[in-house]
Amino acid sequence: MNTENKKRTDQPDPEIISGGMGVRISWWVMARIVSMMGGLGVVSGTALEIVYPRILQDGDPGGHVKRAFTELVRRQPALAEPVWELFNKYYIEGGRAPGTPYKPVAPCRLTRIENFRPGPDSFWELPREMQILVLAANFAEVWLAGEGHDKPVGINFLRKVERPLPWALYGAMLAGAAYVLVGAGSPDEMPSMIERLSRHEPAAMSLKVYGARSNSGSFYAAVRPEAILGGQAPVLPAPKFLAIVSSFGLASALASNPASKPYGFVVEGSEAGGHSAAPAKMRFDAKGQPLLVYTDQDKADVGAIAGLGLPFWLAGAYGAPARLREARSLGASGIQFGTMAALSSQSGMAPALRSKVMKLLTSGELKVSNAMVSPTGFPFKVARVPGTVSEESVYEARKRMCDIGLLQVNYLTPEGELGYRCPAEPVEVFLAKGGRAQNTTGRVCLCNALLAATGLPQLRPGGYEEPAVVTLGEDLQAVRDLLALLPRGQEAYTIGRALLFLRSAA
User: Fold this and answer.
1) SS3 sequence of 193-254
2) What are residue 210's DSSP bridge partners?
3) How far apart are CA 364 and CA 358, in angstroms?
4) Which of 172, 267, 398, 505 is 20 to 30 Å apart from 159, CA to CA?
5) DSSP calls for 391-422
6) Higher pLDDT residue, 344 or 376?
7) Which residues touch 16 (CB under 8 Å, ≥6 apart)?
């Protein structure tokens, strides 16, 4: 790795971390600015294998994908042929014709690796083309965020999006990611995966498979670097791993085991946007649907987490100058801020959609609610924005389908193979795969809706365009406070202005 592109992991930890939000909301443009200004810019690693083919079909504006792929091939010559085959498969000079749908990308489905390791466990991998696509897209996003400077950048993954994760992690590490953040599930296997991949050794991550019998062994997704790169490669700097947790219990369990011990934690409160942990005590309405009521017992014991002796950052309603001061007084290294970053002019949110959200915010009409709309079963924050799936009429008008499948769960078919089902797919299809009807109520296809939010909506026959979903944290006051400092009538701010505002705590 060139010194110029190496993002050193021995630099002091940043005080402020930007959130790794949504699908491309935290994209390389915003992360690059945050890092260059002394924070830790974090890109979202979710669905990049869908994002990058769509960018290419839109003509690769600015030539950024081509530039990043060129760097990947320069570093890893063995990838030249498959990387450029993928580029040419999706690239359209000048972009798609108006009204043309995006060429679909095959869902991340796994195939069994024969004779990988002896024993009852089974090991699975993505098809070769998808391995390269996932790796290249994550390399590109991290490399672009770090291009032209030597400050560290990070990448955020969801443990729930498990099938592409091993290859996404490897691609990010090849690009020099200095930090890796993982939430939405227990990330206990990440430290060992990072260590093995830094040496280009095979690494496996367990898969949750519904219906698997106790005598059928465990299931793993396994990445084999030698089969990808075709030989020896220099050892990579291991990124610092931050586990995203919402309780002392999980933090303590991770820290107490050398195999799962992270470098540090991001301690996320229930007010944070996106996916959240469920309340410790679930309550249900008369129809059996969960009521997402959080109490003091759902708050992480920050003092106990500080006692673990590892660096930690507080997130979820901490994106404000006073909260930064409070976090430091509690022993935290700093904060992670998301909502303010997502609404900045440099976020990846579609400009027209962001403008609509900002108008609602300044008029006092923007509401954010916790809902069970995610196929994962995790609570998910939804901003009430006209024209998005937060409106009942928009949700009902959309035909159920699951053509991306990142949030599908694995289940064991009668033939002993892996099958995939999603509560947001057609109900009869979900039930035929062994799903439960109550799990389909109100579920939203987040894959399509989050892609639409970043300005990459799929078009359907008849001109139907996939609607967006906007996820933000519940605490919007800090954004209002920042807007109050701007010239009268100005309803937009840069990510740099947001950082300066947060640093006014000093």
Assistant:
1) HHHHHHCCCCEEEEECEECCCHHHCCEEEEECHHHHHCCCCCCCCCCEEEEEECCHHHHHHH
2) 411
3) 10
4) 398
5) SHHHHHHSPP--SS-TTPEEEE-TTSSEEEE-
6) 344
7) 34, 38, 39, 40, 324, 334, 335, 336, 337, 499, 502, 503
Give the containing element (helix H, strand E) for 381: strand 380-383
- Whole-number Å distance between alpha carbons of 71 and 65: 10
DSSP state of 38: T
Q: Note the pLDDT of residue 152.
A: 97
CA 241 to chain centre: 15
Distance CA 410, CA 150 (A): 40
- Which residues are paired to 158 by β-bridges? 183
Where does the pLDDT of residue 296 fall: very low under 50, low under 70, confident under 90, or very high at 90 and above? low
| CA 299 to mean position of chain CA atoms | 23
**Per-residue confidence (pLDDT) for residue 5, from 0 to 100:** 40
pLDDT at 3 over 70: no
**Three-state secondary structure string covering 139-190:** HHHHHHHHCCCCCCEEEEEECCCCCCHHHHHHHHHHCCCCEEEEECCCCCCH
* Count of other CB atoms within 10 angstroms of residue 478: 22
The length of the chain, given as a count of residues: 506
* Single-letter amino acid, residue 235: V
In whole angstroms, how far apart are CA 134 and each of 31, 141, 169, 189, 193? 20, 11, 9, 20, 17
Nearest CA among 218, 213, 210, 211 for reference residue 189: 218
Question: First CA to last CA across the chain, in angstroms?
Answer: 36
Q: Which residues contact 162 (CB under 8 A, 6 or more apart)?
A: 185, 205, 207, 208, 221
Per residue in 140-150, pLDDT (tens digit) is 999 999 999 99
Q: Collapse the DSSP code of 71 into the 3-class scheme (helix H, G, I; strand E, B; otherwise coil) and give the result.
A: helix
Q: Is residue 242 within 8 Å of residue 181, measured between CB atoms?
A: yes
SS3 186: coil
How far is residue 485's CA from residue 501's CA, in Å, rounded to a whole number?
Answer: 9
Q: Which two tokens stand for residue 503?
A: 């640093």
Radius of gyration of the chain (CA): 22
pTM score, whole prediction: 0.93
- Reported as type and span, the H/E element at residue 485 is none
Q: Which residues are paired to 421 by β-bridges?
A: 409
**pLDDT value at 49 more than 90:** yes
